[in-house]
Amino acid sequence: MKKSLFYIFEYMLPIVLLIYLIANTTYLFLARPYTGINVDMTSGVVLEVNVPMDDSLAVKMGDVVKSVNQQSYEDFSNNLAAPYPWRGYKPGEKIPVIVIRDGVEQEKYHVMQFPTFSTLLPRLISQWFMPYFLYSAGLLGLLFLRPRNIQRTLFVLFNFLIALWFSASSLSGEHDFGSQYVLRAAFWLWLPITWHFHWIFPRQLKALPAWIWTAFYTVCILMAIAQVFQLVPQDTYLLSFLLAIFGMVVLLVAHVITQPDFRRLAWNIRNLFFFLIIPIVAASVLYFVFRKQGEYFVPMTLLGISALPGFYFFILYFQNNLVSNQFMQRLYRLYTWITVIGIAFGAVYALALPIFADIAPMFANFFFLVLIGMMFINLTPLLILPTLSNPVSSSGDDTQVQFRANRLVVNVIFIFLVVLLGSTIGVAILISVQEPMNLVAVPLAGFVSALAFLLFYAPFQRWFEWRVLSMPIQSDQLLETYSERILTSLDEATLRSLFVNELLPSWLIRQFALLQWNGEHLHALITLGVTLEQLPQTLDVPAGWAKVSIPLMLNKEIVGLMLFGRRDPDDFYAVNEVGVLRQITNLTALGLANIKQSTALLELYQSDIERQEVERAALAAELHDDVLQHMAQLSNQLVDAKPTPELLETYQYTANRIREITSGLRTPLLAFGLVNALEGMVENVQDRGLKNIALTCEILGEDVRLDERVELHLYRLAQQALDNALQHSKAGKIILSGVANESAVNLTVSDNGIGFAAGERLDISSLLANKHFGVAGMFERAALIGAELSIKSQPGMGCQVNIRWKI
């Protein structure tokens, strides 16, 4: 039973309601007769005749209609089952009408009008679009709000019922399409939904016995039935609207007064109260009391009601995100001010329209465009807030309604845009083309909509999932992309980035843990949305939050565990998706094995590098303390032996060369800091007497000291880059530049030489394959200290080697 109700609410109700809204709109524009006359449904007074006639026998403005072709207008006004008197006549047909003119009952006639732009315009600037806005709010609540509890259900029904009675109200005056019954029943059903929703929103005021709500719902349902069967006066349903608004105000104030933990939401509720509820109540009272004059305040009511879902979404956001960012605060203030300006504009419209009657139509058309714009602005929080909310509720309360991303919203928005496009084209043809050419409006609109769907759905889906839902990898490419990336992830940081920034967001997974098993306990490698206290320590202890648990197997042995928890929107993993996760788990086991091997090789390489540095220092010391000393003794002996100039020159060259080699093998200037050492290295190279090469050093920074190992590797990287430029670039200018401080070092060796084709990506594998062993060694050395090395070069454009390191 519960499952059946779930499917009815989640799937059937939105579809049925949307069909009803579209049917009403279609009937309003295409099937409802264009009478060319506006008659007050209560009094029968003719308010307007679109095409006045000079014939005294024609119906004129101010007449009181008694009957239309022998159908009593009074019976129509007092009987909901009575048909609309003007229905069933063709354009151009002359209809006999009994009216009271100058206090005398007279027989007149009226000619039914053909649809024109002037007769279509009043319907275009009516409230027909408003139900779709409230329907969208309810639908987005279905898509984005979780869990599926009573609060979410009431929020959705609250918006759906407003959409229902708004749609029915556009036709109920003429008793079209059964809308007179739907309107009254929807108002009575809306009353208990409104009270119940605001009783538990943002949090329940007090737990009430179930029979109280059952009795209240039963009474309202009986009142709805009584209205349909006309057992109570027709206008009784207006009482339900006033009671709903009154209850909304009282309950919102009660939340602020009685719930101290929600005082931080008081300013949101205060704005909701002053900027929305009060204008809605005032406009509604004016409409019910003054009727015709109160109609001018209807747009202000529409704007206020259209902003309600946005304010509710903001309250939900601030409730579930205890620390809201500055952008959200600004967005909320902007939304509030736009709403205030819109309602103020509606008040100006209501006050100015009766005064400036000559320009009333033009003013009304302009206000209609502003109203449409305001509706779209009011819809933005419903789309933006779910994408900005935290993946996991910061309040830690899983029973509270929270925003959850949903891929189905892509289909909803795209279908809405396609329908909007088709409707715009259809209406444009209807109002601009005469019969019979306007018959192509519906087929052409359908063809354009279908073509737009075929051409743009896939690109729109990719763009929306990437930009709005932050899903960087398409679901159908996830396994292929992961299998390529995992094999090149040679350290835990890269693997963590791959999971947290790409894989998990692409599946909307908000809770995850990758645990490594060492034979005794589990060790956390990657976590998302869970604390260390929530992780199991052994394989036999389950994690309560995990929906899917898959062991990592390697050589038939368990090496770890992957836990998948909360996933937007419903924490559900289909059978085929679990199969994909198993493949990802197997690939991850291989990836961890590669990382383990890579880490061992890196440690071996590190020890080899350190051994080489020790050997370099020992060799430099031996050259300096032994070979150069013997060279000095040989110099003294050469003076006595009267050597030839050639021998002296060879001796001097050999001694200088040994000193250069000794200086290169050891880095004594590092004792004075990295900056001094680099500057000294450049000075030593300059002392060699470079031919046609301008070498400069431009490093900004103090004589800060870093870890000895870091300083040594940064020095060697710069030394290697400089040696490569001197030997291979054929440059006329080489610059060693950069910035160094205690937390970061950024060094660049650039030249204006011949350059080379570096390609988009340089990695160790490709460098070794092309026998660039020196550059490959630079990448390996940079990896040892966590530095980033990049090389940019093009043939004829020189080369730039950049070394970036930070703590």
Which characteristics define this entry?
single chain; about 800 residues; alpha+beta; 5-stranded mixed sheet; 4-stranded antiparallel sheet; 22 helices; 17 strands; about 60% helix; elongated
Describe the structure in your own words.
- With 807 residues, the protein is α+β, with helices and mostly antiparallel strands.
- The chain contains 22 helices and 17 strands.
- The strands form five sheets. The protein has a five-stranded mixed sheet with strand order 13-14-15-17-16, with helices on one face. The protein has a four-stranded antiparallel sheet with strand order 4-3-5-6. A four-stranded antiparallel sheet has the order 10-9-12-11.
- α20 packs antiparallel against α22 (773-784).
- The chain is elongated, with a radius of gyration of 40 Å.
- The protein starts with a helix and ends with a strand.
- The relative contact order is 0.04.
In a few lines, what is going on in this structure?
The chain has 807 residues and is of the alpha+beta class. The protein has helices spanning 2-31, 73-78, 117-124, 130-144, 150-172, 179-200, 210-228, 237-258, 266-290, 298-320, 326-352, 360-388, 408-432, 441-467, 478-486, 492-506, 575-641, 645-665, 674-686, 708-728, 764-769, 773-784; strands spanning 37-39, 46-49, 64-68, 71-72, 94-101, 104-111, 145-146, 402-403, 512-517, 522-528, 548-554, 557-564, 694-701, 733-740, 744-751, 788-793, 799-806. Helices cover 58% and strands 12% of the residues.
